[in-house]
Predict the 3D structure of the following.
Amino acid sequence: MELKSLKFLTNLRRENRQFAVIGLGRFGRAVCGSLHKLGYEVLGTDIDEKLVTQALSQRLASHAIQLDSTEPEALKEAGIYEMDTVIVAIGNYLQESIITTLNVKEAGVEYVVAKASSEIHGKLLRRVGADHVVFPEHEAGCALAETITKPGILERFELDPENSIVEVLVPEDFHHKTLAELELRNSYGVSVLAVGDGEKFSINPDPRQKLSKGLVMVVIGCNKDIQRLPL
Ligand code: ATP
């Protein structure tokens, strides 16, 4: 779901970052295209020339280069080591994924995100220095389960595996009640950061403000507490 209000969460992220995505499979292309759409400078690379040409013609990246990421020299020449974030999006080629992650970490890239296709793959990636390991299939499955059970959650920004900031529709039970009356910190252990109508948010909302159906709230808390909200 694309919401204008999502900008609120997007704006929390650091500006002026340069990204490289290594591996332009389905996952890599999605990361590349989304970063590019968000206005970031992103370099896409793959060993497969066809995928590189496709990334450029589909405007998924600002730049795209064909290279073999297991070769440190090729990464250096392409300027990958100067990026502040590199995403290693090679899930199915274990050896290539591990060597690539090792290459970029050894060369001093500050933040490396790597895609794992299994538990053991994830462990190996951490061992060679990956700062963040993602399991897209597993995470997509969990997210689907949460969406089905909590349709009121519009967007989720994971702070860490236990805590999130979520954008939610004001539930029926909160209609015409003030934040002071609801005492969400006491009853649910969550805090409301902002309330808005999807266009404009009021940050640190007045506790005397009445909520109403159709408004959205940005809530911070641990996932278990967020799950207890009547959404
Ligand atoms: P998914 O759709 O889940 O991302 P996929 O099958 O499309 O999976 P993978 O098999 O994980 O993707 O590979 C991602 C990309 O990584 C492929 O396009 C592949 O060409 C590329 N790749 C594999 N080895 C290298 C390498 N040594 N250097 C650069 N790119 C590589």
Q: What stands out?
A: The two ends are 17 Å apart (CA to CA). DSSP finds ten helices and eleven strands in the chain.
